[in-house]
Backbone:
């Protein structure tokens, strides 16, 4: 990556070791709950801990105490004002932010073997694409909700659900006969979780700038800061998480050195994600709109991931990528105006956020219908 010096052997080794590191606190709770509690009771303990706080529960299980003491600890470096700036910064991107999340971050992640193997071994790769996209989009919106990371709030609850889901996946795959720790590392390991945080933060900043979005120093710092804290709540080792964009770029480079490219299964996932608009379309008008949306989405993917990656992912090459480049001057001009007129950033965040909320609600509704077909 441009501007990043060659990493030391020690730094490379740290990331390589992260491929075999899991989330001990969440894993211990999930193992305890699965082996000693019935499902209803374990879910009730978690729900009460989220809503009331672990210190207010009467004699909760020790593994649950350890997990929630970590979750409820507020890092000394956490700046609440930066979380608000990050919320505004991401939400003002509106549909552009959604395109970057889906067609660069998520699509690009499907190229790597360790990322897709848990999906492969749980089955129904293609059929679950609309629901996976809906769940991921909802997760991001929950994280970005007003004060969403406070105890009991939407984002906090969503993060804990995802963290425990990861622990359940590890619990079931750890002894799966087809899982190869030597080849892929631990299931949903520290390096993979760190890579996900970087895709949601650093990738957004880099690709957003390329399409004309402008971020001042505080805004770019806020996005990294937000996902650093989300990473802590998700169980990523705190020392691995970047504190600013420069550190994030270096980590992204280091992680890229450890990833192995996936086999033909990547095309199954990539194609399914690409075809979500078509899968959810109802009636001929929506099917026509879906075809147009897929061309735009493929154009964004091609612009940032390249032809070779798209062929690997089973996504048809789209000439719309050139049209996407054509709108960059317009976006840049609008951003110049926004940044100089008082109050326009707030208005942009309000309008962009409303679009993202409405899109997410519609996606959840449509994906639910799709799964019930």
Residues:
């Amino acid at each position: 990556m441009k501007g990043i010096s060659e990493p030391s052997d020690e730094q490379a080794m740290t990331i390589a070791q992260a491929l075999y590191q899991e989330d001990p606190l969440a894993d211990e709770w999930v193992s305890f709950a699965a082996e000693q509690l019935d499902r209803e009771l374990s879910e009730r303990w978690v729900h009460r801990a989220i809503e009331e706080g672990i210190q207010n529960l009467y004699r909760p299980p020790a593994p649950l105490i350890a997990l929630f003491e970590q979750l409820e600890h507020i890092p000394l470096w956490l700046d609440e004002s930066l979380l608000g700036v990050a919320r505004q910064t991401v939400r003002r991107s509106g549909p552009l932010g959604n395109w970057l999340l889906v067609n660069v971050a998520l699509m690009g992640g499907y190229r790597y073997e360790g990322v897709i193997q848990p999906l492969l071994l749980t089955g129904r790769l293609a059929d679950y694409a609309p629901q996976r996209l809906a769940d991921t989009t909802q997760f991001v919106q929950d994280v970005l909700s007003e004060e969403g990371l406070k105890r009991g709030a939407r984002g906090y609850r969503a993060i804990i659900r995802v963290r425990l889901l990861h622990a359940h996946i590890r619990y079931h795959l750890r002894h799966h006969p087809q899982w190869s720790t030597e080849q892929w590392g631990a299931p949903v390991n520290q390096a993979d979780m760190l890579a996900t945080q970087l895709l949601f933060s650093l990738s957004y900043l880099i690709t957003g700038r390329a399409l004309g979005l402008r971020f001042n120093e505080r805004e770019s710092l806020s996005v990294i800061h937000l996902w650093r804290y989300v990473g802590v709540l998700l169980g990523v080792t705190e020392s691995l998480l970047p504190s600013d964009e420069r550190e994030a770029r270096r980590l992204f480079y280091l992680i890229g050195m450890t990833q192995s490219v996936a086999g033909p299964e990547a095309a199954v996932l990539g194609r399914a994600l690409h075809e979500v608009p078509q899968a959810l379309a109802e009636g001929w008008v929506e099917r026509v709109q879906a075809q147009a949306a897929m061309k735009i989405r493929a154009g964004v993917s091609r612009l940032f991931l390249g032809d070779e990656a798209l062929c690997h992912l089973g996504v048809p090459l789209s000439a719309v990528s050139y049209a996407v480049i054509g709108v960059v001057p317009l976006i840049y001009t609008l951003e110049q105006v926004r940044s100089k007129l008082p109050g326009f950033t707030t208005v942009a965040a309000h309008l962009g956020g409303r679009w993202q909320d409405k899109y997410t609600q519609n996606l959840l509704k449509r994906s639910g219908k799709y799964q019930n077909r």
About this structure: The radius of gyration is 21 Å. The longest helix spans residues 344-371. Residues 9-371 form one domain.
